[in-house]
């Protein structure tokens, strides 16, 4: 019996400011995630720190993904199939806290981000649908 969807998959692309991690994104980010997971081993972290580009070239990631890593552009990496649970390993390699990594994605300092979250996070008011513009 085929699985019936409760909503069209296109609806997942209609959430402003959010990239839902789908099976398609998982496939797109496969080698990016393999790279991130390699950073769990200290010898790999050291090799990456010595020559980031040479280390990245060991993985069949897209050039856009490699550039995103080099720029530490987590927003771009998420657009290119990255999942933050993997990407945070890059931040950890740089000595960043998860708060600093996530805060960098908002344009806020880690302190501003922490304050915003302690105050309840972002307002649910505002743009709720890209297609409908409301």
Task: Write out key terms for the chains shown.
Protocatechuate 4,5-dioxygenase, Chain A, single chain, mainly alpha, 9 helices, about 0% strand, about 130 residues
Structural notes for this entry:
The protein is mainly α and 134 residues long. The protein has a domain at 20-94: Protocatechuate 4,5-dioxygenase, Chain A (Orthogonal Bundle). Helices cover 52% and strands 0% of the residues. It has nine helices and no strands. The chain has helices spanning 23-28, 30-38, 42-50, 52-56, 63-71, 74-79, 84-93, 98-104, 110-118. Helix 8 crosses helix 9. The longest helix is centred in the middle third of the chain and has 10 residues, at 84-93.
The percentage helix is: 40-55%
| N- to C-terminal distance | 37 Å
Number of strands: 0
Outline, from the CA principal axes?
Answer: globular
Layout of secondary structure:
Elements: H1 23-28, H2 30-38, H3 42-50, H4 52-56, H5 63-71, H6 74-79, H7 84-93, H8 98-104, H9 110-118
Quick rundown:
The chain is mainly α. The chain has a domain of 75 residues: Dioxygenase LigAB, LigA subunit (Protocatechuate 4,5-dioxygenase, Chain A), CATH 1.10.700.10.
């Amino acid at each position: 019996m085929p699985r019936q969807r409760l909503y069209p998959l296109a609806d997942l692309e209609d959430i402003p400011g959010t990239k839902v991690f789908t099976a398609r994104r998982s496939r797109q980010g496969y080698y990016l995630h393999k790279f991130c997971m390699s950073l769990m081993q200290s010898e790999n972290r050291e090799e990456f720190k010595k020559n980031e580009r040479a280390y990245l070239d060991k993985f069949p990631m897209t050039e856009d993904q490699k550039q995103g890593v080099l720029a530490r552009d987590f927003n771009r990496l998420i657009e290119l199939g990255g999942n933050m649970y993997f990407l945070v390993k890059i931040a950890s390699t740089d000595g960043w806290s998860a708060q600093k990594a996530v805060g960098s994605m908002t344009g806020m300092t880690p302190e501003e981000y922490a304050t915003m979250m302690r105050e309840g996070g972002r307002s649910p008011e505002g743009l709720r649908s890209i297609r409908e513009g409301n």
